[in-house]
Design a protein that fits this description.
heterotrimer; A alpha/beta (489); B alpha/beta (249); C mainly beta (341); B: 249 residues; alpha/beta; six-stranded mixed beta sheet; four-stranded antiparallel beta sheet; C: 341 residues; 2 domains; ten-stranded mixed beta sheet; eight-stranded parallel beta sheet; 4 helices; 47% strand
Amino acid sequence: MAAVKQTVEHVASLEKYKHGFVTDIDQEFAPKGLNADIVRFISAKKDEPEWMLQWRLEAFERWLALEEPDWAKVSFPRIDYQDSYYYAAPKTKEGPKSLDEVDPDLLETYKKLGIPLKEQEVLAGVQGAPRYAVDAVFDSVSVVTTFKKELAQAGVIFCPMSEAIREHGDLVRRYLGSVVPVSDNYFACLNSAVFSDGSFVYVPPGVRCPMELSTYFRINAENSGQFERTLIIADAGAYVSYLEGCTAPMRDENQLHAAVVELVALDDAEIKYSTVQNWYPGDPETGKGGIYNFVTKRADCRGDRSKVSWTQVETGSSITWKYPSCVLRGNESSGEFYSIAITNGRQQADTGTKMIHLGANTRSRIISKGISAGKSSNTYRGLVSAHPKARGARNFTQCDSLLIGKHCAAHTVPYIEARNGQAVFEHEATTTRLSEDQLFYAMQRGLSQEEAVQLLVNGFVKDVLQELPMEFAVEAQKLVAISLEGSVG
Amino acid sequence: MLSVKDLHAEVDGKEILKGLSLEVPAGEVHAIMGPNGAGKSTLSYVLTGRQGYDVTSGKVTFEGEDLLALEPDERAAKGVFLSFQYPLEIPGVPALTFIRTALNAQRKARGEPEVSAPEFLKLARAKAGELKIDFDMLKRALNVGFSGGEKKRMEILQMAMLSPRFLILDETDSGLDIDALRIVADGVNALRSPDRAMLVITHYQRLLDYIRPDRVHVLSAGRIVASGGPELALELEREGYDKYARAAA
Amino acid sequence: MSVASAIKTGDAAELPGKRDEDWRWTDLRGLIRQVPPDSAPAAAVGAGPFDGAAEEIVVIANGEGAAHIGVDPHGDRTVALRIVSRGDGSHAARVSIDVEADGRLTLLESYEGEGSYLSQTGLVFSLGVGAQVERVVLAADDAEGVTVSEAEVQLAAEASFGQTVITGGARRQRLQTTVRHPGGHANLRLDGVYLLADKRHADLTTVVTHEGLDGVTEQLAKGVVRDQARGVFQGRIVVAEGADRTDARMGHHALILSDRAEVDARPELEIYADDVSCAHGNTVGRLDEDALFYARQRGMPDDVARALLTEAFVGEVVERIGHEPARDIAAAWVAERLRGG
């Protein structure tokens, strides 16, 4: 009960979208629009080697030949790809060498967002609390990455992608695009051409990453898109837990966020990837503005007994189109997907996962909790497939949708393809509304309607929340509360 | 009748039975008692040939024949019956159909003629009556929606109908109230005869008040660590398994 | 674009294929390069599977035959509808079925094929208030035949429509039912069974749209595939805005009995109303090993135990057929298929 009360108080103390402020800072832009010269501009800005530029240009060529997909259950006006900036960065002489050199306005921004960028602030925190190394990405560039030294001592590379391309070229060349091929889909292809920054992680064989890694993405500039690219490699027997958070200012126009995240897990390696996505969802009444969140996230469980676990809390964005997936290539590899997707106002989300069983005795587990309120639409779309060689493949899927209000929609679209007699797939799905009996019961015990909804919703999403690292779980719970504010009554 | 010599068996690569030896002569009832995790259920599955219970060494003979070489249904046709601790629910198959299919399969394996439908129904009616099972329940899918007690009674009914020669009762008392326990025990006791033997596997002594054993064995950490008469069960009830757990370790 | 128009125009490009989302697992365009010429009238059609169970028999052979079945208010008919395909041509037929208020119809429909034909049948059911229809479909197509059956059902308040489709598949086969469900305490049951061997394919597709208050839909489909066969189940339940108090449940369960067989499923819920209770369950796998061991411990040899459990698995659907003679015919057909495989 205490938690609920706390949540409700928290809700009361906040405006609806608390991350909606704009940082007033001098920024540098690429010319508006998209062509091969813009691709060259971005590559040059980042001082990239020739191979990277060629890779980008090839992607751009292919993108021109592709068509925007229309199969998701979302609708929006056609995007004018020429009416956007593909590069925006805070003006600095050179990339900051240390935290002291970072623009104070930026530091203030992250402080306001609650992201610890000063290592001592983290260290001065509660004893025993886990530490986080943070890579902070502001529009198109990474502004600072913390704990790099300490991580390097453990052999872990954690740095902005642009830096990795320059300094760990061999690793990047080997793995970039090996999970999500350049022309995998329209948005991934666009990203391959114009990606700006994102995080690069390499954990060497047998190393358990000594702290949680996290990246905080912030879109600030007007009329700009963010195209981050993240690549995480866990070498044999390695372990890493990675978190990402996302916010953006409240703006009237739509902004595109087309990220690509690639994870590679070799033999016996494990990657845990958690997302709390809270991009600006647009105006709840008019649907104006908000982020188009079109991302491609895929893990390749390349090694035997490797494991990847995706956990996502999706509360923001006006449109979400996202299917963090696992290719279970290694024998006995396993994939997990835990998702909470909340839509309110005019939001549209089409999200889910793909579990592709290729290796023998591979396992996957999908727990998806969708909540729709207001005039929003929330779709779970998923694929579970077992190829003929995936003998002994197992999947369990639980897919629940909760509807709050008369004008929202909830869809469940699972695809199941079993191509051998030794695979066992189980799928369960329910769609219900918040139980009036339960609401009444809680209210009879003294909870307000809003509190009662909180309580029941928290119960509904509990299975997924408990998969998040503790600090994130608390944050996510608050976010769930805020996202549903004003959804009843 | 049943002879187990230095039996080693593993499940998922983990050794559970570690040199178990046991002789059960015809006409006798032997109890196997032991703490949780001692290997009691493993023993019952190894004797009946369940997949995944792998014998790594040792011998089991049933009336002189190598039991381990036989398929589960061949063992059943020889007369080995296991009353499951958790009887399976079989949706879509009425209990009568299931039992009749089993009975005729066993008879066929033994070279005996099939039982005719009227004969079978007569037998089923009589045995159901003895076990106080509503005959209509036999028309329903086997064990689907049955209570724990009903499932156990259904096991004893199958036992009575199939008339096996070697009975293994795996925790048959669990989940039974006192009245149900008495009915089940009566059913089992009715099957006692000089050419049958029984292995009663149980954690508690309670069942042995109703099904009196000739011998009691203590199973701990995969081996028989003590054997004695019925008084051993009473001692275990009083003093617990600690002494034997330590002896095994 | 449809199968019917492809047959009419002879243009194979009109056939749906895997690029059409709803046909991704039943690719006709990739299979049929050229639409076969129109079928010649069929010669003798022999006896149908439901002949003994119906009062009247309607035969449509190679697209030729009576095309309307009507039931007057409070009337009651039991009709065997035989869709017969013979030879290597293509043919299409349309059948309209009108059951007026409080009328009852038992439609025992069979697809009987011999040859490598392409056959399309469109059925349009229209039910009056309180009408009751039971439709039992037995699809016994040729291993070389291609059959598409598309039924559209318009339900009315307090009406009931119960359907059981039982199929052994074909070279490619789609049995589709689309239902507009007005709610109003109307009851819908959409069951199906597919038993596939060799290289046969069967696709059971249903789309139910709940358009009003208080609708009930219940669906149970089961499949058994072996060899290199492929079973497809697509079930979509749509609940339109305002169709409150809808209660819809869908279950699809399949057994794959060989290493090269395939089952594809898409159980879909599309919900635009909040006061609903909708659920679906889907399992694909093999026979339960524990149940198999239990049966074998009781003395059943492996093949006997498997047959018993498989028949029981499918039996749960067959038992739901209300019309007793049809149920017996269906059960016998299923048993023969399972044992023959």
